[in-house]
Write a structure and sequence with these properties.
alpha/beta, 3 domains, DNA polymerase, domain 1, Trna Endonuclease, Chain: A, domain 1, about 290 residues, 5-stranded mixed beta sheet
Length: about 290
């Protein structure tokens, strides 16, 4: 019998996902999510055992997450901040504008020149492109699809919409090469999962699609973790009100707060807690860079 089984009754335990679907609890998934936070093996083992001891039929993934997050935070806050990454991205909402800015920052860190929300004339209509990127005379248009709910997915209709916009713009600049913005490739970036049809269509049409866990090496999660560009909403040393005030003042990344003592004070962070924020940021951002 595996430890994915209920140790007391010898029965599989089914939990409820954010989408409302039921699935068999997987210890392997829990363990992997904890390992991605860079938690030491003993800490991972202790938390897994703790969760297994309290697991019950019908428990939600959110309950399991909150429990694991609390245990990680008690052990070492920066580990909890990494574990909180997916939800921290959602906290950039409810609108998608901050997510678009965040994606723009990821692109800039990889050498792209970016422009946000640029109106671009197509053959039939004018389009507002979420993020326009240029690197080595290669131009990309990026459509950012933001979801507030962990159970949401970007489906093939979203990919079709992006491609239709790309083709309308492409038709214009190919007919009139000197008219303005040109794009060589369309990207779809979402903060949640992609449906299998969205992935199949994107692969078939030549569109770069990036979801939370797709593709393996260049998923949104991996790009963030390997670049060290974590959103400030990750931080466990700031409360929700302080995070929202900082976002409203133009900060979006943890690194935007480095050395900004007065900014932190302006949102109510005490001098004592400023040093805690600084330590958490320093550890959280120590990640190697990744090239596209």
């Amino acid at each position: 019998m595996t430890r994915d089984m209920d140790k007391r009754a010898g029965q599989e335990i089914f939990i409820v996902k954010a989408s409302g679907e039921r699935e068999r609890f997987s210890e392997a998934k829990l363990r992997l999510s904890l390992e991605k936070s860079s938690a030491p093996p003993k800490v991972v083992e202790d938390i897994v055992n703790h969760i297994l001891g309290e697991l019950r039929e019908g428990m939600t993934t959110s309950e399991i997450y909150r429990h694991a997050f609390s245990l990680l935070k008690n052990y070492h806050p920066p580990l909890a901040a990494r574990y909180n990454l997916k939800r921290a991205i959602m906290e950039l909402g409810p609108e998608g504008y901050l997510f678009e800015r965040f994606v723009g920052e990821l692109l800039k860190s990889k050498g792209f020149k970016v422009e946000m929300g640029r109106p671009v004339e197509g053959f039939c209509v004018t389009h507002e492109v979420d993020v326009a990127g240029e690197k080595n005379d290669y131009h990309i248009m990026v459509e950012c699809k933001f979801h507030n709910s962990p159970g949401s997915k970007s489906d093939v209709k979203v990919a079709l919409y992006v491609q239709a916009r790309f083709e309308d713009i492409e038709r214009k600049w190919r007919a009139q090469p000197g008219h303005g913005q040109k794009f060589h490739e369309a990207w779809l970036v979402t903060n949640t999962k992609l449906t299998s049809d969205a992935i199949r269509y994107g692969t078939c049409i030549g569109m770069k699609v990036i979801g939370w866990n797709y593709p393996n090496e260049e998923s949104l999660q991996n790009l963030i973790e390997k670049s060290g560009l974590h959103p400030l909403t990750c931080l466990t040393t700031l409360n929700n009100s302080q995070k929202r005030q900082l976002l409203n003042q133009g900060a979006i990344l943890c690194k935007d707060l480095v050395g900004k003592t007065e900014l932190l004070k302006s949102v109510g962070v005490s001098q004592q807690n400023i040093s805690k924020v600084a330590r958490e940021i320093d550890e959280l951002c120590q990640k190697p860079t990744l090239s596209f």
